[in-house]
Amino acid sequence: MVVNLCTQVKTNFRGLMCVAGAFLIQLATGSFHGTFGNLLPYFTSYMKQTSPSVTNADLAMVFSAGGIAQGISFMFAGLVFVPLLGKRGCLMVGCVIFTISPLLTYFTLNTNIISVAFSYGVLSAGAVNIIMVPTFLIPVTWFPNHRGKVIGIVNCGFGLSSTLFTPIQTLIINPDNVVPVLQGNSSSASYFEDEKVLSNVPVALLYVAGVYALLFISGIVLMKEKTEEESEKIEKGEIFERLRSSFSFLIHHTFTRRDFYLLFLTRFLFITINCSFFAHWKSLCFTLSDDDRLISLIGGVSGVMNCLSRVVGGALLDWISFRWLMSSMASILTIVLLSTFFISEISFTGLAICIWMINALSFSHFSTIPVQTINLFQKNQNSVVQGAIGFSDTFAFATLGLVNSFIMSRVQDEKMFLWFFITLSSCSFMAIFVTAMVSSERMEDLDKKENKEEMTLYGGNVAGVSNKSFDL
After folding, report:
1. What per-residue string of b and e applies to 316-355 under the rule 16 or more CB within 10 Å gives b?
2. Mean pLDDT highest for which of 50-54, 84-88, 187-191, 427-431?
3. Using one digit for the tens of pLDDT, what is the confidence trace for 234-276?
4. DSSP string, 416-431
């Protein structure tokens, strides 16, 4: 067994390095989503120096704006960027944009929310899915029979991002564990006023950008597709042909499939839960504890659970059908979301456990949906389908904007987080039924079935002709 394992590692060493490179890239990319909730009180506190009326709900709109751009960029990544630039070219462009984002935010933090929304929200989130598509599609070319495991491993880097970056951010910004100050009579809002903490906020962005650059360079060097198609020069005529082919496949073979709409809606529902929870989990914790280090530790463990959710979900999909796996997870998630507010009223430890369970249950779709998409749609146009499904992010983050406006802006309401979790649980409840309707058959199985039917039909016709000839 050990000899066999060593042989496989030696044979697929280049493939393993490709997976490792994709993991490192997603480790950096996941920091936008994984640590926004951690940075939100710091950003708000810093900007309150010049705009005292700014609240966490206002700054949470940065996340919403970014998410809207994220869905659009995901669609264009699969539909335009990959056909034009190739997977590696698309990957490099995304990495450069993502690294520039915190550098620009270093300056825009001193301006207004709109500028921050563009520099940190739109650029970061827009780059995320430009990066995401090639990190899904390149590694699986080395391991076509283990797509779920490969995408799960790659995706766990995205999940582990908060484990790496949350403590780094907290250590740089608040090394002395300064306690935030409660604002007014509300138990739902507290902000930092210590000058040292506030002065560290923009500096942290420069350190983070440096870490991004290091991880991206390492990952790009390691990632290489098994096939050499992308190394070939693309002639001008071929560019237009690739674009025409992509749009044709989108219209005639994607929009006409029921599974596309089911997967689109599944991602929308889960992303709505993810982005809402990412944006406000730390604000919820501050209503019960003012220990910033303890809360950042909870965020770090959340990253581990997020990681496990992705890798376990991808691995299980190689054994269990998508409809059974995801509907089961959505069912348990609904119960946890409905219970979280009431548990938080009793125990901070219970709240921490609920936070970890939500992370463990709600992020598996980042592995399972791409794998199911690869299974259900034509291989050479899969980036088109992945991008079109990713467009659901735009609607999910627009929904977060509504949640921020109508629920999270009511900071004087003691039941604010109750309405918040009821809203999220309704999304997971709908996901139970949506995921249960997704097809289970793979594209390869459908092709074999069609070929078999054609051969049977052809054989029947031949037999019919022979019989008729004989009768004559």
Report:
1. bbeebebbebbbbbbeebbebbbebbebbeeebeebbbbb
2. 427-431
3. 554 566 777 788 888 888 889 999 999 999 999 999 999 998 9
4. HHHHHHHHHHHHHHHH
Which of 34-48, 52-66, 117-131, 389-403 is the least confident region?
Answer: 52-66
Angle of CA points 164, 167, 173, to nearest 5°: 130
Q: Is the Cβ–Cβ distance between 134 and 90 less than 8 Å?
A: yes
Could you give the CA distance from residue 92 to residue 94 in angstroms, rounded to a whole number?
5
Q: Which residues pair with 190 in a beta bridge?
A: 182
Whether the Cβ atoms of residue 139 and residue 150 lie closer than 8 Å to each other: yes
Distances (CA, A) of 109 to 32, 59, 83, 188, 269: 16, 11, 36, 24, 31
d(CA 109, CA 47): 7
- Does an H or E element contain 434, and which? helix 416-436
The closest alpha carbon to 159, from 356, 430, 417, belongs to 356
CB atoms within 10 A of CB 239: 12
The candidate with the shortest Cα–Cα distance to 371, out of 324, 310, 430, is: 310
- Residue 326: which residues within 8 A CB-CB, separation 6 or more? 266, 364, 365, 368, 431, 435, 438
Q: pLDDT (tens digit, 9 = 90+) per residue, 409-437? A: 777 778 899 999 999 999 999 999 999 99
CB 270 within 8 A of CB 262: no
Q: Please check whether residue 91 is in contact with residue 131, taking contact to mean a CB–CB distance below 8 angstroms.
A: yes
Q: Half-sphere exposure of residue 429, counting CA atoms within 13 Å on the CB side? A: 9
How far is the first Cα of the chain from the last one, in angstroms, to the nearest whole number?
64
* DSSP 8-state class, residue 405: I
pLDDT at 54 over 80: yes
Report DSSP state, residue 54: -
* Residues whose CB falls within 8 Å of the CB of residue 438, separated by 6 or more in sequence, listed in order: 259, 262, 263, 266, 322, 323, 326, 372
C-alpha dihedral, 38 to 43 to 48 to 51, nearest 10°: -140
Question: Token pair of 184, please?
Answer: 């007014």
